[in-house]
Amino acid sequence: MDKELVEILCCPATRQDLRLAQPQELSELNAAISRGAVSDEQGRVVKRPLEAALVRQDGKRAYPVRDGIPVLLVEDALVLDSFR
Q1: CB-side exposure of 72: number of CA atoms within 13 Å?
Q2: Do 29 and 35 meet the contact criterion of CB atoms below 8 Å apart?
Q3: Residue 81 above 90 pLDDT?
Q4: Cross-strand partners of 62
Q5: Which helix (H) or strand (E) segment is 65 a member of?
Q6: When you count CB atoms within 10 A of the terminal residue's CB, does the N or C end of the chain come out lower?
């Protein structure tokens, strides 16, 4: 993702800054997804691995990036504290 784009994006629910997930974080998140341990804001289990993710400043939510496009929908936010 374009670094300048990431710098202007924010969480649509809380307006906190977002940052691109580090490779290790993304690997851990995808491992948790493969175990069925990650759900979205609506409680749906996430099944599709992520190519990238934008993590909220407080680390409690992440927004998937699909085909290079950030999906900044509150209902699609991944609940990160459910697998940590």
Answers
A1: 20
A2: no
A3: no
A4: 55, 78
A5: strand 61-66
A6: C
Of all residues in the chain, what percent carry a pLDDT higher than 70? 96
Buried-state track 55-64, b at ≥16 Cβ within 10 A, e below 16: bbeeebbbbb
Contact (CB, 8 A) for 80 and 32 = no
The model's pLDDT over 7-42, given as tens digits with 9 standing for 90+, comes to 999 999 999 999 999 999 999 999 999 999 999 999
Q: How many CB atoms lie within 10 A of CB 83?
A: 17
Report the pLDDT value the prediction gives residue 83, as an integer from 0 to 100. 63
Token output for 71: 């999906």
Q: pTM for the complete prediction? A: 0.92
Measured from the Cβ of residue 3, the count of other Cβ atoms closer than 10 Å reads: 7
DSSP symbols for 27-80: HHHHHHHHTT--EETTSPBP-SPPSEEEEETTSSEEEEEETTEE---GGG-EEG
Structure tokens at 24: 């290790």
